[in-house]
TrEMBL record:
Residues 1104-1138 form the SAP domain. SMART domains: SAP (SM00513). It comes from Rhizoctonia solani. PANTHER family: IP13529P, NOTOCHORD-RELATED PROTEIN. This is Carbamoyl-phosphate synthase large chain. Residues 1061-1075 have a biased composition (Basic and acidic residues). Residues 1-64, 1061-1087, 1158-1198 are annotated as: Disordered.
Length: 1198
């Protein structure tokens, strides 16, 4: 027997999935070893060449040996085919239920299902159906086991949804609109039962004195909401205490808790506000008029223990106010479980749901732990779960708890927050959503009104807002009330988006009814009132105005991204660019900005070219960078000192608002109020009218109130919420657009479910009612594979500890292998290399060797390198944070000291060159000054505090643009160059106190007189009066110019009309007059000459300026003139031609003919003589720029 030659041509064991038919048989059909084609059903296989060669070489051997080899060969092939058929069945098999909890990858049947779930549900990388199918086919081609089909994966998702719950549900608004929401309770239960999120959750307000870093440190949670909204229970030493229930203290006295508060170091000591209960002859009496605060550690007996005690005296008669709440109404529902109230932050924004540039508006609501129609659904969800708490599993205490969500505040941009508050916005007389400041334009321009704009007014009352909405609804019932409604909205500053729909409907209905003669006024009024009553019952006003625990006017804090960066900083940037362009100094600023030292700022490299080339299209990150460094480039380029002061104050405001924690809230707010006030006064000097036209300046005055109420301003910044817009857009793009809100809701539910399972979250088994979690092996996968963790925004890697060392990478040889180069040197060699002199470290001997290291991690987790400026500690006790003693220095070298006789004896330290801190501020910028000394010192890693940013004192050194620097493009050096600053010395520097990074340590390193911003202002009352006067003067000048222009145009129109009437007779005699004029040519020319001489070239230009460009081009064609150029060029061309040829101005009939011709020509051009129903001609594409790379020539360039 022999093997046929066709098979012996292949050299690898190759599997082909292109056909499922068996290959042509390579074996003699009469042979005993012939395989039946039915046994080889499935993918084709080819035999290895080496096996075939060995068979041919041994052909002369016994047939029994060859038969044995062939039997083994075909047996292995048969097993492979059987395994392949098994995998085929496993791929197509649909998972109907979850595997056993003891399964290796529970709740997933196989590892492939888990990997698919975690990849396809990654927030930042969305997959389309085709892409998912390609990924699965890729895995199959690599012979990965148990790879499911896309259909099987979707069926498994349905099983998981049934097991873990489906949070997406339908909601119908009061206007009949349908949209889908993800249930708040389901999301909260996942957060509570997940170990990662549970460790960061808190349920009680924290009282930390003057320290503030989180929302639970704010005034609202401490005292701004009612007691019933906060958490009801607290467990201490194994006992559960409820609010509103009497307890007995260790002293034997009684007490009624009302509100739990955490105090002490690390907020670990529970305290309680409540009523003291006094024992009288008639019984117990609660002192409800005064609250006291006691430690929970003084509690001895719970309510149940108190009332079961036979010695309990009971309450006196008349104590129904406290006894009616005992026991607590939710005690029976809780059944021994803890009841926590969870504060939520609700963010709402409009975001495009399309991939293209077409704006496809979607409204997204994110919650951290809309039009107002969406808020109806949000409010209903809050109300439902607050009354019926959500059952969840506490991943920390491993027990069931009850959760009640309640809204804390609503961050957002200013237009969205105005809609939340039913504010009419910027065009109203009262434009502020927080207070009642404002009035008419005349009042705001007066001395009193202008001064009120920089102060907070009377806080708006939700009840007054509701009354204004009701008044507008009632006004819509009256006839011809459209103008009255508009005036009412402008005057009151109230305009509710839900009520507006009803108002427009009532106006339309009223107009229709009043046009019917058969309707009496009484019938019309009754019909409209009935419609209004139906709308009220369905909900026709802002649901946030009467939401429990919400004062929406105080719960929409001023958002710093849109108000400060995209508001104040943007306005002053525009004014600065205007001044620099006007003075021809913008390029100097560009060169200085290129020369800025960015070390210590901890920001990406500043894109100077983009900022300067596209100065009108910057975003928040650009303005944040400019606020930190711009003053160092314009200190002598702007003639107006007030503009420079505005930048100094704006930068200081930015530093104060971008702080993550506040050590002393009282001191902080005093300075913040002063900075805001100074900034507004400087603005009144620079551009007083902008205070009236840009309400964001007024919104600044409310920041201190919101910070005291909710914590640092970064907590209600929208930057972190808007980062989810990309995820939201991805969920919208990868849907069929038939049910967008449902698809997006399901997509987000899938993201939460996959992340919850992968990170060890718990869920309730529907069959056993036990709380389950994923298998340990499954949880370990995402911790050990950073790629999968990164897909879900998780990072389980450990941050480098302070004092960690970064070494230089080893150099590579020409072949790419790493080379070990001994770079150790003695202390004298180090000193010679650095060209300095200083004694060796005290503990080191002359035999120690030193090696340079790349970086050291400071106490603030900065990685410092050679040349950086740092703050270091000179305190004897480096672990004492209460009394730090900091100094400034520059890193000269980072060294590793090694003992040659003991390899374990290794120390690290930095060689520092000290800065001397000047006693006075910089005379222009008002910042501390540093002088680089010639003294050096050594510092251990634990003494290095942080990195800081310093800039050269160019104003004192009179530095110029005297150096050329090459320009890099595409990471390559070009032949182009730019001018950069050439510093005159290396000793005079300015400490950049406007840098956001490490501002806390910078403040602690400076004396009190050197902290903050210092701007000299004169009489503040005079500044405001002068500002108001400038506003009135400017407005009067604009009105006068507008009236003068209008009067000139009206006078010329009258004169022109009279001249045209005199030259152009009545229409019925027009033809006769024209015929007579043709017959008498000489008389017509004489008349033309007389008319032309009467019109000067100025009058002709003014006349032509009233015509459109098309008419002007028609006149140019009529006189055979050039039609190219701007409108001004066309006017000059026609006026000069008419003046030089003594022609009269075109008559009205000529202009009408040109208009008719232009209209007909445009219509013909648009139709393009195409048949009816055909497609319009393709739009002409703009040619690519010269020298630019288009899509077509990119491949050629590559």
């Amino acid at each position: 027997m022999s093997i046929s030659s066709p098979i012996s041509q292949t050299s690898t064991f190759h599997r082909s999935d292109s056909h499922h038919n068996p290959p042509e048989s390579p074996v003699d059909p009469d042979s005993d070893s012939y395989l039946d084609p039915h046994d080889l059903s499935g993918p084709s296989y080819k035999v290895p060449l080496n096996m075939l060669s060995s068979a041919e070489e041994n052909a002369s051997s016994d047939d029994s040996d060859l038969d044995a080899e062939l039997d083994a060969l075909f047996s292995s092939v048969r097993k492979i085919h059987q395994l392949d058929r098994t995998q085929q069945r496993q791929r197509t098999h649909t998972i109907k239920e979850l595997p056993s909890p003891t399964a290796e990858y529970y709740p997933y049947p196989h590892l492939a299902f888990y990997l698919m779930d975690i990849i396809f549900n990654s927030p930042r990388t969305r997959f389309s159906r085709i892409q998912k199918a390609v990924v699965l086919e890729f895995a199959r081609l690599l012979d990965a086991p148990y790879v499911p089909t896309l259909h099987a994966y979707k069926e498994f998702q349905q099983v998981m949804k049934k097991e873990m719950g489906d949070p997406t549900y339908k909601f119908t608004s009061s206007f009949g609109n349908i949209f889908y929401l993800n249930d708040i309770g389901e999301s909260l239960a996942k957060d509570m039962s997940n170990p990662l999120s549970r460790q960061n959750m808190t349920f009680y307000p924290h009282h930390c004195g003057n320290y503030m870093a989180q929302t639970w440190h704010g005034k609202k949670m401490l005292e701004g909401v009612s007691d019933d909204i906060l958490s009801l229970t607290l467990r201490h030493e194994g006992k559960t205490y409820w609010v509103n229930e009497i307890v007995q203290r260790t002293s034997g006295t009684y007490f009624i808790p009302k509100r739990w508060v955490l105090r002490g170091k690390n907020n670990s000591i529970p305290w309680c506000f409540g009523y003291e209960v006094k024992e009288t002859e008639q019984g117990l009496v609660a002192a409800t008029k005064k609250r006291i605060c006691v430690a929970v550690s003084t509690f001895a007996r719970t309510y149940e223990e108190v009332i079961s005690n036979s010695k309990f005296p009971g309450f006196a008669v008349g104590q129904d106010e406290v006894t009616s709440q005992m026991p607590h109404p939710l005690r029976e529902t809780a059944a021994g479980r803890q009841v926590y109230s969870i504060p939520l932050i609700i963010f709402m924004d409009d975001v495009s749901g399309a991939r293209s540039t077409q704006w496809n508006k979607h409204y997204s609501v994110y919650m951290s732990n809309e039009p107002l129609e969406l808020m109806q659904g949000i409010k209903d969800s809050f109300k439902k779960h607050f009354a019926n708490p959500v059952i969840a599993f506490d991943a920390l205490t491993k027990e069931e708890v009850l959760l009640r969500p309640w809204p804390l505040f609503w961050p957002g941009d200013n237009p969205m927050q105005a809609e939340h508050c039913s504010s009419a916005g910027l065009n109203a007389s009262h434009f502020c959503r927080t207070c009642e400041v404002g009035g008419s334009q005349a009042y705001c321009s007066s001395d009193k009104g202008f001064s009120e704009l920089i102060l907070p007014g009377i806080i708006c009352d939700p009840e007054k807002t509701r009354a204004a909405i009701q008044a507008q609804l009632d006004l819509s019932l009256e006839p011809r009330s459209g103008n009255k409604l508009r005036s009412a909205a402008v005057d009151s500053g109230v305009k509710d988006s839900l009520a507006q729909v009803v108002i427009e409907k009532l106006l339309t209905l009223g107009k229709s009814l009043r046009s019917d003669p058969g309707q009496t006024p009484q019938d019309i009024q009754k019909t409209l009132k009935d419609e209004l009553e139906v709308a009220k019952n369905a909900g026709c006003e802002n649901p946030l105005l009467q939401m429990q625990g919400v004062n929406i006017h105080l719960d929409t804090p001023t958002e710093i991204l849109h108000t400060v960066l995209l508001g104040i900083v943007k306005y002053f940037w525009g004014q600065t660019v205007y001044v620099l362009d006007k003075n021809k100094k913008f390029e100097i600023m560009r060169s200085r900005l290129h020369s800025i030292d960015q070390r210590g700022l901890n920001i990406p490299a500043i894109p100077v070219s983009y900022i300067c080339d596209y100065k009108g299209a910057l975003v928040g990150k650009h303005f944040k960078s400019l606020a930190q460094v711009l003053v160092f480039t314009i200190y002598d380029l702007v003639n107006n000192q007030s503009l420079l002061d505005a930048w100094i104050l704006t930068s200081r405001l930015t530093v104060m608002l971008w702080q993550t924690e506040i050590e002393n809230i009282e001191t902080y707010l005093v300075e913040l109020e002063q900075v805001i006030a100074d900034l507004l006064y400087v603005t009144a000097i620079c551009s007083p009218s902008i205070i009236l036209s840009k309400p964001k300046f007024h919104f600044l005055v409310h920041l201190p109130v919101y910070i005291r109420r909710f914590g640092p301003a970064l907590l209600f910044s929208t930057e972190r919420f808007e980062s989810f817009n990309g995820i939201f857009r991805g969920a919208s793009v990868f849907s069929n657009r038939q049910s967008p809100s449902r698809d997006i809701g399901l997509s987000f539910a899938g993201l939460d479910r996959a992340k919850h399972l992968a990170t060890g979250g718990y869920w309730k088994d529907t069959r056993t009612n036990d709380w389950r979690t994923a298998s340990p092996k499954l949880q370990e996968l995402i911790h050990s594979h950073s790629a999968f963790a990164g897909l879900h925004g998780l990072d389980f890697s450990e941050r480098p500890a302070p004092g960690s060392i970064y070494f230089y990478p080893q150099e590579r040889s020409a072949t790419g292998s790493r080379m070990h180069i001994d770079r150790q040197e003695t202390w004298d060699c180090v000193m010679a290399r650095l060209e300095i002199e200083m004694p060796s470290p005290s503990r080191a001997t002359n035999g120690f060797l030193y090696t340079s290291v790349k970086g050291i991690v400071t106490q603030s987790n900065d990685i410092i390198k050679q040349g950086d400026s740092v703050i270091y500690s000179v305190s004897e006790n480096l672990t004492d944070p209460e009394h730090p003693e900091y100094r400034f220095a520059r890193i000269v070298e980072l060294l590793c000291c090694t003992n040659p006789t003991d390899s374990s004896d290794v120390t690290y330290f930095a060689i520092l060159q000290k800065y001397s801190l000047g006693p006075t501020r910089h005379h222009i910028l008002g910042m501390p000054q540093l002088v680089l000394d010639t003294a050096f010192c050594l510092c251990e890693p634990q003494g290095l505090i942080c990195c800081v940013n310093v800039q050269h004192n160019c104003s004192q050194g009179r530095c110029t643009l005297g150096r050329k620097a090459p320009i890099h493009q595409e990471r390559e050096l070009t032949e182009r160059w730019r001018l950069v600053v050439c510093h005159s010395d290396d000793s005079q520097y300015i400490l950049n106190t406007q840098a956001l990074h490490n501002s806390k340590y910078i403040e602690e390193s400076l004396a009190i007189e050197l902290r903050g911003a210092l701007v000299q202002l004169g009489d503040r009352t005079a500044i405001l009066k002068q500002g108001a006067e400038n506003v009135r003067t400017k407005k009067a000048q604009k009105d006068a110019n507008r009236q003068a222009t209008k009067a000139t145009k009206d006078a010329f129109a009258r004169t022109l009309g009279e001249s045209l009437v005199a030259r152009d007779p009545e229409p019925e005699h027009a033809n006769t007059h024209e015929d007579a004029a043709d017959d008498a040519g000489t008389s017509t020319q004489a008349a033309a000459s007389t008319s032309a001489s009467a019109a000067t070239i100025e009058q002709q230009s003014l006349y032509f300026s009233q015509l459109t460009v098309e008419i002007l081009k028609g006149l140019c064609r009529k006189h055979k003139l050039t039609v190219s150029g701007s409108k001004a060029q066309l006017i000059d061309r026609l006026a000069s031609f008419h003046q030089s040829h003594s022609l009269p101005l075109p008559t009205r009939s000529v202009i009408e003919e040109l208009k008719m011709g232009a209209t007909a020509s445009g219509s013909a051009t648009r139709s393009h003589m195409r048949p009816e129903g055909s497609e319009p001609p393709a739009k002409r594409q703009r040619p690519p720029p010269l020298g630019g790379r288009t899509v077509d020539n990119l491949d050629a360039v590559a």
